[in-house]
Write a structure and sequence with these properties.
Layout (H helix, E strand, L loop, with lengths): L2 E2 L3 H12 L23 E3 L1 E17 L3 E4 L4 E6 L5 E2 L6 E3 L2 E2 L2 E4 L16 H12 L16 H13 L13 E4 L3 E6 L6 E2 L4 E7 L2 E8 L11 E5 L5 E9 L14 E9 L11 E19 L4 E2 L5 E4 L6 E10 L2 E6 L6 E3 L3
Parallel strand pairs: 9-10
Antiparallel strand pairs: 1-3, 2-23, 3-14, 3-18, 4-13, 5-7, 5-12, 6-11, 7-8, 11-13, 14-17, 15-16, 15-18, 16-17, 18-22, 19-20, 20-21, 21-22
Length: 352
């Protein structure tokens, strides 16, 4: 459910009440005689900055490119990496019957056929050869990385196999290799060591190492999210992070609960240090979508606002005690946009 951070006059009134703001009399700008001076240190600066009002939505922190990890051969599962393990190019994913049974390679195309001498040309051959070269299986540079299979490809596959304790046949079945875009993270297991597995049997989950957030946005709020928009993220650790919307669904999905509103799936990629933060998976986060922005405006702390008798707002300049009438604008991040006889760098009194 949406939870606006600061928005509208109701929030202003509540803040002023909590702050114990006093009502100022008249329109001559003179401070009331009974106004108590602010305690030392209860001041804030007049700053020029951008203000951004955001709506906060619930999201779920996970990893990108989540997929099923399936067995590629039949036998007894004898090793499965721990959830959270990261597997890199040329490393095995699990073992069957005591032998490593699947090897991670990088590429966009899935292994849809066996690799063997005499096979027809294809982009998958080029993809395999690129990995063999990167893994040092072609030390003499005899192999041409292209769509065709030749003797040098067979020799490189043989070296790849021998270095991993496999029979150096020069051929690979499609179950022996798994192509993914890059280093991959092992997720939750769905099979246990000792169980019988077969080709295609799901044994766990696998994903990329990139952090990603899924948000089920109310369809009525679809306009909040556009691809490329910057968002703020409050992580489970209490830290804040930056994110960017990478995908907005085009079709509304039925509500998870009876009577609920349809939702639009939105994907947010974490950026900067936040992307390298906590390893928590499927953890709840708060995602702030921009609703309105005020650029390069004078701002004061919300607690500096004083309600004037008869309507309107004012602030008190620290030191002089002068009351300056202001016109509030956008509220965000505990500050408010103001127009009035103020200068950047002025100091105003804030509520106790």
């Amino acid at each position: 459910m949406s939870r606006a951070l600061i928005a509208g006059g109701g929030a202003v009134a509540a803040l002023l009440t909590v702050a114990g703001a006093v009502a100022l009399g008249g329109g001559d700008g003179a401070p009331p005689a009974a106004a108590a001076p602010a305690a030392a240190g209860e001041t804030g600066a007049v700053e020029r900055r951008d203000l951004v009002e955001r709506d906060t939505m619930d999201g779920t922190l996970g990893y990108a490119d989540d997929a099923v990890l399936g067995a590629g051969t039949a036998g007894t599962l004898t090793r499965l990496r721990d959830p959270g393990s990261v597997v890199r190019r040329g490393e095995s994913l699990y073992s069957v019957d005591g032998r490593a049974a699947a090897w991670l390679l990088y590429g966009a195309l899935p292994a849809w056929r066996d690799f063997a001498p005499g096979m027809e040309d294809g982009a998958d051959v080029r993809q395999l050869e690129r990995n063999l070269r990167a893994l040092g299986a072609d030390p003499g540079g005899d192999m041409t990385v292209d769509d065709g299979w030749d003797w040098a490809t067979t020799a490189a596959v043989g070296r790849f196999q021998e270095e991993r304790g496999l029979d150096g046949t020069g051929s690979l079945t499609r179950g022996q290799v798994l192509f993914r875009a890059g280093p991959s993270r092992i997720g939750a297991a769905t099979a246990a060591v000792g169980q019988q597995v077969g080709p295609g049997r799901q044994i766990g989950r696998i994903s990329s190492t990139r952090r990603e957030i899924a948000v089920d946005l109310d369809a009525t709020s679809q306009g909040l999210a556009r691809e490329g928009d910057a968002v703020t993220v409050e992580l489970p650790t209490g830290r804040s992070a930056r994110g960017r919307v990478t995908d907005v669904g085009k079709v509304a999905e039925p509500a998870a609960e009876e009577g609920g509103d349809p939702t639009i799936p939105v994907t947010v990629a974490l950026r900067g240090k936040g992307a390298r933060g906590s390893g928590l998976d499927q953890a709840p986060v708060d995602v702030g979508f921009e609703v309105e922005r005020a650029k390069d405006v004078l701002t004061v702390p919300v607690k500096a606002l004083l309600a004037r008798q008869g309507g309107g707002m004012a602030v008190e300049l620290a030191g002089s005690g002068r009351i300056v009438e202001v016109e509030p604008g956008l509220y965000a991040d505990d500050r408010v946009e103001v127009e009035g006889d103020l200068l950047e760098g002025d100091t105003v009194v804030t509520a106790r």
